[in-house]
Design a protein that fits this description.
The structure is a single chain. The chain is 44% helix and 12% strand. It has 10 helices and 7 strands. The chain has helices at residues 25-37, 55-60, 65-69, 77-80, 104-116, 134-137, 157-171, 190-207, 216-229, 234-253, and strands at 16-20, 43-46, 72-74, 86-90, 100-103, 121-125, 142-145. A 7-stranded parallel sheet has the order 3-2-1-6-4-7-5. Strand 1 (16-20), helix 1 and strand 2 (43-46) form a beta-alpha-beta unit. It is elongated.
Length: 254
């Protein structure tokens, strides 16, 4: 406590994480670490079993001290969410309340929409052993469930915080689903691929691989399509040229 945090939250407005009656300081710390991983920093604790502050939480946070240092402590859920306009409650089972139920992914989309409109949003997480009770759930507008293996769906509360926080982060993350590594060479141009294929075709003709005239056109097209699908870099195309040259040289020597 009082140590310098190793991380900082993102500058964007984000949901408040409310942990209701958490039992272990370690879980609070791991939840704080998960939050900061995903750019969240506003943490509220409702009646933590072992009191607050809890040194074990700081040890488990692995540097996410900024989350714990600013955590608010409340005696009841109603107090913890009093200033919020939308509250999402995580639950693993139906509590016999009529509520809208969404996945974490849909909740992330909803929360980003609410926050974009200037609304204050919070997410409730229940205690490790029992989860949220009906008395907790009635403070929420929406129930959130995480689809898991129905034969083993139990989650540690810190894991649940990470899953929900990650969905929040990715819902607004511009990272493309696929890209070349930053250190990789540029993609090969079509001209470079054409030159490579011409080199390969000559080598295959010289080796006799394309000796069957009836099959040659389809074989050539399939090989050309294969090279196109490979999405080679300029460096890989040059390496392939070297491989062809080496094999051709050794074939002639034999």
């Amino acid at each position: 406590m009082g140590r310098a945090s190793k991380g900082r939250p993102t500058a964007e407005a984000a949901p408040v994480i409310v942990m209701v009656r958490p039992q272990l300081g370690e879980n609070i710390g791991m939840a704080a670490r998960a939050m900061l991983n995903c750019g969240l920093s506003a943490l509220r604790l409702v009646s933590p079993r072992d009191g607050w502050p809890n040194e074990r939480a700081w040890r488990a946070a692995s540097g996410a001290d900024i989350v714990l240092d600013k955590a608010g402590v409340f005696e009841a859920v109603g107090e913890a969410v009093a200033d919020l306009e939308h509250v999402v409650a995580t639950t693993a089972r139906n509590r016999e309340l009529v509520q809208r139920i969404v996945t974490a992914r849909q909740a992330a989309i909803d929360m980003r929409d609410w926050i974009a409109r200037g609304r204050k949003v919070g997410i409730l997480f229940g205690p490790e052993r029992t989860g949220l009770e009906n008395e907790d759930m009635v403070h929420a507008d929406t129930a959130l469930t995480i689809p898991l293996n129905p034969q083993f769906s139990s989650l540690n509360v810190a894991q649940a915080v990470l899953l929900v926080a990650y969905e929040w982060m990715t819902a607004g993350d511009p990272t493309p689903a696929e890209r070349m590594a930053d250190h990789a060479a540029r993609p090969a141009t079509k001209e470079e691929l054409e030159n490579l294929f011409a080199h390969l075709e000559r080598a295959l003709d010289e080796s006799g691989f394309l000796r069957h005239k009836a099959m040659r056109p389809s074989m050539v097209l399939n090989l050309r399509a294969l090279l196109q699908r490979a999405a080679m870099t300029e460096q890989e195309a040059r390496t392939f040229h070297g491989v062809i040259k080496f094999l051709s040289k050794h074939q002639h020597e034999e």
